[in-house]
Every structure is written in C-alpha cells, then in structure tokens.
Design a protein that fits this description.
single chain; 224 residues; mainly alpha; 7 helices
Length: 224
C-alpha cells in the first residue's frame, strides 16, 4: 500500500520531518485554543472559553470518580493538557493531507514514559521511597519473593499498555482511512470519517483515564 499523502510530505518524505511537523502543528493548535479561551475571560463563559471550561470540568469529574476530588484537582492540569494534545494529534490524522503524530510510536512512547516517571515520582514523594516500594511486596509476607518481581513487571508493562494501545489504534485508523480513500474517494468516506473522529476522542479519553488510574494508585498506596 502506498504511503499516506501529506502536505508536509511535499517538502520531503523523511519520516522524522513529517512526524515533527505534525507534532508541532498539534501543539500549536492546542496552545492557540488555550490562548483564545483565556484572551477575554468572562464570568459567564461563551465561545471557546465555554468549551474549554466544559472540557476541564469533564476531566475533573473523570478524576474525581477515580481518585477523589481533592487528589483530582492536583493533577487535572497535567491530565487535561495530555488529553487536549493527544485528542488534537489524533484528529489531525482524520483530515486528508495530514498524518496523526500519534501514529508514530515516538510520541505515544514519550507520553507513556512521562506518565510512568511522574506517577512513580508522585508516589515516592507522597509516601517516601521505602513505603512506596513496600506495597509492591503484597500483603502476605511469605509471598514477597514472588509478588515483588510481578509488581515490577506489571508497572513496566504500563509503558507498553499506554504507548502501543494509542499507537496501534491510531496507526490502524490511518491505514483504514487510506484504503477507504483509494476504494471510494468521494461519498463513502463520510461514514468512516465520523467513526474515526469518535475513535480519536475515545483514545484520548482512554489515555487520560489510565493516567488518572495510575496516579490514583500511586497516592493511595496505603489502601492496597
């Protein structure tokens, strides 16, 4: 199957260039949305401000369901930023002539490593190094030797879960869209476009939810 056509690809077919330009485009759109939303703040929000406030409230409620409102407020900025960035990056791939930067493993893996390092840092900062890693041993002392390596592998597997789930789904969506555009370039793609738009939002939602889950597990060690 031929490579996806992209406007940035007219300059060069170098994959690194295409990835970086689309990633910067996604970041630029996210920053522009935030700037527009904050440019004229009102007590009764309208337009972009209303949209962004609704989004932030939704992310906060998501976090509240996972880890309680007090903890969710601490991390809502991080999770909302990741969700906005990932959502826009996914949506770009639905537009003909552009390719989702999340369809390159580098971006999902970088985000996954960021989340992995941060939630472990939060856990250690909240409970201390010894107490945090002690919960990896499990509740039964004579199974410590077994539970500790299992927990370590389980935590590192989250890197794979976060990165490859996002990468695989978005890459598969791009390939699906390319096939549809080759077979029926005019009328038929309307339905796939709607489906892929929904999937773009869904993958961003899943990434945010998992981030909240991992952060919630890190700050609630004593309940494990």
């Amino acid at each position: 199957m031929p490579e996806l056509f992209t406007f940035f690809g007219l300059a060069t077919h170098d994959k690194t260039f295409i990835y970086i330009t689309h990633m910067l485009l996604s970041a630029g759109i996210a920053l522009l949305l935030v700037k527009v939303a904050m440019s004229n703040l009102k007590v009764v929000p309208t337009g972009t401000q209303n949209l962004m406030e609704a989004y932030l409230n939704g992310v906060l409620e998501m976090g509240t369901d996972v880890m309680g409102r007090a903890h969710a407020k601490k991390y809502v900025a991080l999770v909302a930023t990741i969700g906005l960035f990932v959502g826009i990056a996914n949506l770009i791939g639905v537009i003909p002539g552009f390719e989702a930067p999340t369809a390159f493993l580098e971006m999902p893996l970088t985000l996954a490593i960021t989340v992995f390092v941060y939630y472990n840092y939060v856990g250690i900062k909240t409970h201390g190094l010894i107490k945090y890693f002690k919960h990896f041993l499990g509740p039964v002392w004579w199974l410590y030797w077994l539970m500790f390596p299992i927990e370590i592998v389980s935590h590192f597997s989250r890197l794979v879960s976060l990165s490859f789930r996002l990468f695989g789904n978005v890459k598969g969506d791009d390939m699906f869209l390319a096939v549809i555009l080759m077979l029926a370039p005019w009328l038929l793609p309307m339905i796939p476009f709607a489906l892929l738009t929904f999937m773009a939002f869904l993958q961003a939602f899943i990434f945010m939810m998992l981030t909240f889950v991992y952060l919630g597990g890190a700050v609630a060690v004593e309940e494990h």
